[in-house]
Description:
elongated
Amino acid sequence: AVLDAALARHGVPRVGAKASASGSRALVRWVLETAFHPMDPAALHGLLCADPGPVPRSVARRLVRAFDSLPGRGSPDWTAALAEGLDRIEEERRLGVAVRISALIDPVVPRDAALTIAKLATRLRVLTTWAHGRVAGEPRLVEVIAFSDRVLALAHAGGEPGYGRMALRRLCDEVDRDVTAVTAAEVGLAGVTSPAALLGPARVVVWWGFTRDQAPRSPRLRLSEAERTGLAAEGVVAPDPGSMMAGEARRWRRPLGLATEALVLVCPRTDEASAATHPHPLWDEFVATMPVPDEALRLVTPVITRLVARRAPVALRPRLVGCDVARAPGPLAVRSPESPSSIERLLACSLAWALHYPAMLRRGIGTGPGDPNPLLYGNLAHHVLAEVFEDGGLSPADAAVRADALFEAALPALAEQLLLPEHQVERAVAKRAVVESAREVGDLLLKTGATIRGVEVPLTGSIGALAVDGRADLVLDNPAVVIDFKWGSTTYRKRMERGAALQLAIYAALAKTGATMPGGAYLSLGTQHIVASRGTPIAHARFTGTHSVDDMLSAALVGLDARVRELADGTLVAPAALEEVDDSRLDDGVLRIAPACEYCEFSGLCGQRVRP
Length: 612
C-alpha cells in the first residue's frame, strides 16, 4: 500500500496492492459532519475541495475564501459568495445545484443532538443521486454509493431513531473495516492480500512476509465430546478443528500450484521489533516432502542479487534567481476605481499588484483552515462593532453591554469555529476584545464630544488622478476623525511614527467634506490603544505621530505618479525580490511602502522565497 501510494503520487502506474480508504469515501463522512452545528472547519473544507465533489468549483472557490474570512455558514460573506458562485452556473442547472449544496452543507441539528434516520437518509440520498449522475466519468464514485448505502443500512439495522455525531463516526468506521479498497494493477504486477486470494496461474509469485507469524490462525471452538453430541442432537454441527486446519493448509499451498515459472519466498531475518523470525509452516511441509532434506538449503539464499541502476547524464537545471524588474506584454493602466489597499500594494510592489488585480491570480483552495487567529478576531470585531454603533453613539457602559449581546448572537452565523469546545480560550479572547473595544469607542465619544457620521461608511473620491472607492470602519464628526480598526498595535504605531499610514490617509481624504482634512487614528482591537496622526484631536491617544494625514497623502502622490508612468511603460517592479527592503517610511517627501512579502502569494514568482 505504501509503494502504491508513492507510485500514484509520482504519476507512475501502480502495482495494485491493498489500499487505504479512498478520498471518495471521505465524502460520506464530511456530509455527515456538516449536518451538525458547530462543526470542525476542516471537514467542511474537505467537502468543498473534494475532486470529484458535489460542490462545483465556481462555487467552492468562493465559499472557501468566505469561510477563511469568517468561519461561519451564515455570514454575509458566505451568503454573497454562494450567490455569486451560483450565478456562474448554467441557468438550467442552477436550481438543482443550489438545492444540492443546501442539502449537503446546511446544518440541521446542534452538535450534541441526534440526527434522525429520516434526515440521515435525505442527506445520503442527495449525495448518492449526485454520484450516480457522475459515475460514468468518475468510476471512483461507485465507492461513495456503496459506502452511503452500507452506512444507511447499518443505521436502520441498529434500530435507533437517530444517531449522534460520534455514533455516526462509529458507523462509518465499522463500514470502513469491512471494505477492502484495491487499485487496479497497471504494470503487469498485481498484489493480493493473502496466498489464498491467488485465483489463477501466475508466471512468477513473490510471497513477501513468508514468516511463521503470518500463518492464519482460525479460532478454535473447544467442545467436549458430550457437548458435540448434544449439539448434534439439536441439529447443530460443530466445526471440526482438523478440517479447519486442513482447509488452511490447502489455502496457503495455492502459490505452489499456481506459480508457473518461479515462486520466491521472502522471510526477513528480523521483525519490526528486531526479534528473529522463522519461516512460514509451509516451508516445513515443503522440506519434509524432499527425498534429501538437506537439499532444501540449495533453495535458500541469504543475499538478494544486487541490481545496478542504469545511469544517464541529465543536464542541470539553471538555478532560480530573483527578478526585481519584469516587463509586461504591453502598457498597463490603473483600474477605475482603485481601493486604499490596492493603492498601497501598487506602491509597495507593482508586480504583485499586476498579478493580483489585472491578471486576477489567486491562491488555490487546497490549504486547509487554521486555528482561530488575530485575522479572525479582527474580522469578527469589525462586524460586531458596526452593529453596536449603527444607530449612533452610546455611553461606554451601554456600548460594552450591547457588544456583549451582539457578539453572542452573531457567533453561530459568523464564526461557528469559536463555538467548538477546543476553542473556548480563543472565544474568550475575541469576546473580550470586542467588548472592550466598544467601551473604548464609547469613551472616545464621551471625551471628545464627537458624533458618529457612520460605521462601515462607503466612500468615493479621487486621489490625484486616481478614482478611489473604500469603506471606512468609523467616521466621526465634530471633530472630524476617521478611525481604522486594527488588531495589533505595534505595527501600526510604527507606521504612524514613520509617516506610512497610507490607507488611513486615503480614507481621511475620501471622508473630507469641507476645507479641513479630517484627522486619522488607529484603534487597536487587541489592546484598545489609540494611535493618531499629527493634528488629530484625540487628546488621550496613546501615541501621536509626527506626520499629518496631509503629509502622508502628499508623499504618496509622488510615488504614485512614478508608478503610473512605469505601468504605462510596461515595467513592473518587485523591490524585495533580491534583497531586504527597509520598513515603510516617509523619506524626503516620498512615501516608500515595504512589500508585505510574508502575506504575498506571489513570492515564489518574483524569487523572494528563494532569495539567499
